Amino acid sequence: MNRFPFTVLSLSALLASLSGTWAKTRPPTLPQDAPAAAAANAQPGPRRVPPRVIPVPGDVSKQLQEFIRMPYPPGVLSPPPKTPQEWGALNKRFESEWIAPLGDLRKQLKVTVEPTNVAGVKAWLVTPRDLRPDNANRMLLHVHGGGYVFGGGEAATNEAIMMAGIGGYRVISVDYRMPPEFPFPAGLDDALTVWQSLAQTINPKNMAVFGSSSGGGLALAMVLKAKDDGLPLPAAVGAGTPWSDLDKIGDSYFANEYVDNMLVTWDGWLGGAARLYANGHDLKNPYLSPVYGNFANFPPTILTTGTRDLFLSNTVRVHRALRRAGAEADLNVYEGMSHAQYAGPGMPEAREVFTDMARFFDAHLGR
Description:
Layout lengths: L7 H18 L8 H7 L21 H8 L14 H16 L2 H8 L1 E8 L2 E8 L10 E5 L14 H10 L3 E4 L11 H16 L5 E6 L1 H15 L7 E5 L11 H4 L13 H10 L22 E6 L5 H13 L4 E6 L13 H17 L3
Parallel strand pairs: 3-4, 3-5, 5-6, 6-7, 7-8
Antiparallel strand pairs: 1-2, 2-4
Helix pairs in contact: 5-6, 6-12, 7-8
């Protein structure tokens, strides 16, 4: 009796068949610069990569593909501004670009935006026309992005409009003070002032804090400061691609440099903004770079980033810090997305971002 399940003939046929399958599925030939890359990385040390072309991924929405194809923003590779006047001029340019689409965005998402004042701090009240009944006693506190130096005034409301329209929440967007006139800790103080005022009239368990980029960093920092000061905490936090380390520390600052077509590199206006905002303080101060904070007993947090995001490591590092501290943390990473490209309700990924955040808040906020 044959002890093996295959005869020599059947085993030969099987190997021939597998050989044909492997021939059809084997990886393409290595690129021509592979030998040079191997030689350059033959010794331990930093990774050296050859020049490369990164195609637009085909398995994301057409709208996101258009964002991925976009050229770098004008002037992003110029040296950072040197004077308050130069910072002001750059802020005006960004402000005009960001404000232009807001009228259509408000109409499309059926929200109203009204200027208000909370405990002496300028803010915006963003209200959906169709407020969900279960959100009647809830409120979200929003802190805007813009590198701590841009995006104030009406321009601050873009993300708040998206959350109000898609998630069905009322939102207070803090128009916090910014440098050059008001560096750290002015913005943090403003956000905390608004939070404390709201917490006196609305149950903190019915509120969440959210923001993206510097807004995500500030959201984390203000909750850390509230926790350290023994203040009431929100029921949840949403930190989109947070600027959680102002210094150029983190793998994606290097791996995604020139791949992210929004921020592009730290070595431009971004690094200048970090120094301007910090105003001489240690960049590892957790209220500047919250990744260095103590996240014990921190509220449940949802984090969002993309595979091309310069702040991918900022987001991942915060996720690990939260998990190591035993906090609940939900990390969402979008294919091909550069820094905070979830703008505009016409992009499916944008609706996913704000729908996921709304669901996360809904699961953690009281009624």
